[in-house]
Design goal:
GTP binds at residues 58-61, 86-87, 130-135, 174. One of its GO terms (cellular component) is cytoplasm. By secondary structure, this protein is of the alpha/beta class. The protein has two domains: 8-171, P-loop containing nucleotide triphosphate hydrolases (Rossmann fold, 3-Layer(aba) Sandwich); 201-282, Conserved Hypothetical Protein Ylqf, Chain: A, domain 2, CATH 1.10.1580.10. It is built from eleven helices and six strands. It has helices at 8-20, 44-48, 65-79, 93-103, 105-113, 133-141, 183-192, 202-216, 218-225, 234-245, 256-268; strands spanning 26-32, 52-58, 83-84, 121-126, 159-162, 167-171. The chain has a six-stranded mixed sheet with strand order 3-2-1-4-6-5, with helices on both faces. The longest helix is centred in the first third of the chain and has 15 residues, at 65-79. It is elongated. It starts with 7 loop residues before the first helix and ends in a 15-residue tail after the last helix.
Length: 283
């Protein structure tokens, strides 16, 4: 599959980030814990330059717990910080607030010494589409402040949100980069829902996902879909899943589209199990 998606508003978002960077103290980069490398925009380093950064691995409840620990160690080693969170349930949110205050402690003390007391810490939220930025903000604020959804591209413009008397957040739309040189990255972004399903061949996408899962999480596939033999090949497994779920259309043919949508949906919602698509020792 040749997967590319870079709608016009993303180029505008890139300019927005650069124009507002001087207004913030910290950049909070939200990644998907299931695919931290693929969900990391390679243009971000250049865009934010030397601005302080906090790396947040969201949706950690959907990814492999063992590999989560490896990723946290990876980001703590390479970027001095890396926090695992589950925005839906609020796990890890308190740790983020404490980390922000710790990162800014020296600067705030310096400003207070200069007579600038009670200056709020300003943070910019960045990340690719559908990594859960809006859900994260709603959880950290404690109320519904921004629109959320399970489709990429919900946030269209910037907005400031106050967390408390100490911290303010600047939300920005999700931003990808113009070209995926590695199509494995495109596949993973398709699997986690960071690219609009409407522009993808979902049957191919689900077929590639099922191949990955049978090779790396075979026990989960066996348990979820009651498959006894994984050595028969992806197509036969795909067919067996369709039959077991009763996805049959007129004429007795298997409904591949419905089967594909179901596999992708169940992976994204964690119904198949806790799955990581990448691991640090293979980056």
């Amino acid at each position: 599959m040749n997967i590319q998606w870079y709608p016009g508003h993303m180029a505008k978002t890139k300019r927005l980030i650069k124009e507002n960077l001087s207004l913030v103290d910290i950049v909070i980069e939200i990644l998907d814990a299931r695919a931290p490398i693929s969900s990391r925009n390679p243009d971000i380093d250049e865009m934010i330059e030397h601005k302080a950064r906090l790396v947040v691995l969201n949706k950690a409840d959907l990814s492999d717990p063992i590999i989560n620990k490896q990723w946290k160690n990876f980001f703590n080693t390479h970027y001095s910080n890396g926090i695992l969170i589950n925005s839906m349930m609020g796990q890890g949110i308190d740790e983020i607030i404490k980390k922000i205050e710790k990162m800014m402690k020296d600067k705030l003390e310096y400003l207070a010494h200069r007579g600038r007391k009670n200056k709020p810490i300003r943070c910019m939220i960045i990340g690719i589409p559908n990594v859960g930025k809006s859900t994260f903000i709603n959880r950290i604020v404690g109320k519904t402040s921004v629109k959320t959804g399970n489709k990429p591209g919900i946030t269209k413009g910037k907005q400031w949100i106050r967390i408390n008397e100490k911290i303010e957040l600047l939300d920005t739309p999700g931003i990808l980069w113009p070209k995926f040189d590695d199509q494995n990255i495109g596949l993973r972004l398709g699997w986690i829902g960071s690219i609009k399903d409407e522009i993808l061949d979902q049957e191919q996408l689900a077929f590639h996902l099922l191949t990955f899962l049978t090779q790396n999480y075979g026990d989960l596939i066996k348990r979820r879909y009651k498959i006894n033999n994984l050595s028969k090949g992806t197509l036969e497994i795909f067919n067996e899943i369709a039959l077991k779920r009763g996805f049959i259309i007129k004429g007795g043919e298997l409904d591949y589209q419905r089967t594909a949508e179901m596999i992708l949906d169940e992976f994204r919602k964690g119904k198949i199990g806790k799955i990581s698509l990448e691991r640090p020792d293979k980056t």
